[in-house]
Amino acid sequence: MKHLLKLLDLTGEEIIDIIGLADQLKYEQKHGIAHRHLNGKTLGMIFSKASTRTRVSFETGMYQLGGHALFLSSSELQIGRGEPVEDTARVLSRYLDGIMIRTFGQDEAENLAKHGSIPVINGLTDFSHPCQVLADLMTVREYKKKFDGLKLTFIGDGNNMANSLIVGGLKVGMSVSVAIPKDFLPHQDVLQFAATYGDKFTLTDSPEKAADGADILVTDVWASMGQESEAEKRRKAFDGYQINEKILSAANSGVMIQHCLPAHKGEEITADVFESHANEIFDEAENRLHAQKAVMVKLMS
Length: 301
Ligand code: CP
Ligand code: NVA
Known about the structure:
Blueprint: H1 12-30, E1 42-47, H2 53-64, E2 68-73, H3 85-95, E3 98-102, H4 106-115, E4 120-122, H5 130-144, E5 151-155, H6 160-171, E6 175-179, H7 188-195, E7 201-204, H8 207-211, E8 216-219, H9 231-237, H10 245-250, E9 256-259, H11 271-276, H12 278-300
Parallel strand pairs: 1-2, 1-3, 3-4, 5-6, 5-8, 6-7, 8-9
Helix pairs in contact: 1-5, 1-12, 2-12, 3-4, 5-6, 5-12, 6-7
């Protein structure tokens, strides 16, 4: 593994290996055991979109590993004034040991990796959010102690989170069921990949059907970053695609809830359901730190 651009590029074994290292780094962090695997190394973090979790967890994680992280707003880089990605990649490769990028097009992250000579980590594109789903899978295993035999259900928009959850969930051995309105389907490449898993994957427009027997219920905002102008239209289109008491009652008892955050309570999830599963959701947020540290150790040490 040279980069983390999307989970489609990783094997199930590689994903489980990252989660294993993340568990170990979490243990070491909680017990004050030093793990300075990236002593003296520098990560550049390019952001073209807002962030709380990704920015803070990468910067803190790099510090805990003995390295240093640089926040680079794309609007203040020359890339924001039109300097080509391929030149930016070659320049940054001379200074840094790794790059994290949060941007719009998946092709921008892929191009950075193609033209640079250092590892590139996707910190969210319109297509995928692999760091988030590694943290989600880590959290699932913490709570459920296994992947085999579990059913993960995603309800909502066929966005970057849906794309990554489908791929990650199937690769580690879970069944994945998604309830998504037909005008908002996941990416074609993801649906093609999922089709190779036969009846371990189901796509429906019925949230109740998808949630039936679920062990993990996941949702995300209806309007992602960059889609703010469509928010009203999307609120109408996703009416009924909410995680609420009715959906919970279709799931297995002991179902856990995951949400990458930020959440729009009252839209994709009710405030009551969110608060009664807050432990799982904030453990998930914490695990961004540990999972990304594992990714950086794998790629940069
Ligand atoms: N979940 C997530 O990526 O959060 P941020 O947008 O705050 O980084
Ligand atoms: N789908 C959301 C995830 C935010 C972490 C977005 O892209 O805005």
